[in-house]
Each structure stands twice: as C-alpha cells, then as structure tokens.
Design goal:
CATH class: Alpha Beta
CATH superfamily: Divalent-metal-dependent TIM barrel enzymes
Radius of gyration: 17 Å
Oligomer: single chain
Distance between the termini: 13 Å
Number of strands: 8
Strand order of the largest sheet: 6-5-4-3-2-1-8-7
Order of helices and strands: EHEHEHEHEHEHHEHHEHH
Shape: globular
Helix content: 40-55%
Length: 272
Amino acid sequence: MNSKFSLAHLTVLGCPPPEMIYIASMAGYDFVSLRPIYMGLPGEPNYDLAANKDMMKLTKTALAETGVKLLDIELARIFDDMDPKRYEPAMEVAAELGGKHVLSSIWTPNRDYYLEKFGEVCDLAKQYGLTVDLEFVPIAAVNTLEGTVDVLKTVNRDNAGIMVDIHHMHRSRESAEELKKLPESWFHFAHLCDAPVEIPQDRDEMTRILREARSYVGEGGIDVASYIHSMPEMPYSIELPNLQRVREFGYAEHARRCLATAKAYFEANPRK
C-alpha cells in the first residue's frame, strides 16, 4: 500500500504546530496540514506563524528533525468584505515550509463576488507555487459538488483544484460516480474520516459532528471506499476531530488511532 497520509490540524487542534509535527512523526504520518490562518472563532487557538516568529522557528525545526512534510495550510475562506491579500503572509509561510496547497471554502452566497475573490486567491497563491483547493462544506454557501465544479470551471485557474472531504460528500448526498467525471488534475489531496450513516437534519447537530464528533475510518456508516476509489491516488489528510476520543486517549494516541484505523481500512478495501 503506497497511500500517503497527513495529520490535519483540526484533528489535534489544541496542539501548536511544532508539537503536532512530533506527534505526526511518532504516529507514522507522512505529512501535516497546518492551520496558520487565524479566523478568530470562539476557542480557536492562534497559530499565525507569520506573526509568531518563535513558533515559526520551532515549526521549521520540528519538520527538519522528523522528516515530516507540510502538505497544505488552511483556511482561505471566501466571505463578504474579505481581502485576499490577508492570506499572503500565510502563503509565504507555506512556501517557506515546503507546503504545496491552500485549502479554501466559500461562505457568501454572492456568486459574482465569490468567483472574483476565489480567482484573486488563486492568483496570489500562484506566486508562491501553491494550488488553491476548494472544499464544499454542508453548512457553507457553496455546499455541493456541482457548486464547486461551477467555480472551478468559471474561474479557470490552472492552480485551482477540488478538495473532497468524505464527511461532506456523504452529508451532501453526493454520488461517488460524479467524482469520476472530473479532471484528474483537479485532485491534489482529500480529507479522510468517517461518521454515522444517518444525516442530521438539524444544522447545529450537523455542525457539532463535523467539528467535534467524527468517527475513525471504518467505524462509522459512510462507504468511504466508494469515494476514495472514485478519485485518483493522492495524499489523504485525516481530519477527524473527536473531543470524546481526545479526552479518553489524549492527542497523541488519538492521532495514532486515526492513522492505524485508516491504514487498516485501506488494506481491507484495496483499489481494484
């Protein structure tokens, strides 16, 4: 099995980047997916590496000492009255640390506006050799595969891609077959997790699960393999926040179990 895995920051959000990198290394991950764009959400830690020079230095050291690579950074949100240039310091950090991708999502319903701003983010990222990978989120404005494809085709930037989150694919009731119709060049990495098969009708419950109660791969009810096998082989970033598991096991053991269960699932469900 040649699949590569990244530890997504949301899985171990209480860990600053240097600590997270050492945890990823001990667990056997190939990459980390960092969150250096501070959004100011309630309870959100600030890991703005562009502003925190000491943390940036420790992050560089951790990457060098472990051999773990940076896969992507997040989250370059598109929202009303935003300034894409605000993301440039984080892009510079990503490039300096060897990252390849910037995760984005759209939180405004104004199509003309979000097309313009997403294009600007892509143009900015290109200066740093980064792709911008659009994720559709069930509680966001662009919340379907169709809507994401519309953005990518309309904006038509060669460094734009799609980032499929297995949880979001299932919650949006998307067909795995639709993924096979998309250009392979759009796929750079995917988010891996599992969740209960029943789709919450309540937005708050949907939000709770996606932010703090996802399941280890193979322990939920999603047909993860059908989605994975409908996309090209690429790195899989395990985004699996679960507060109960973290309380029970601690961040390091939770991260290890995330990877162990994912690898076991992939071995049990190989590509045909």
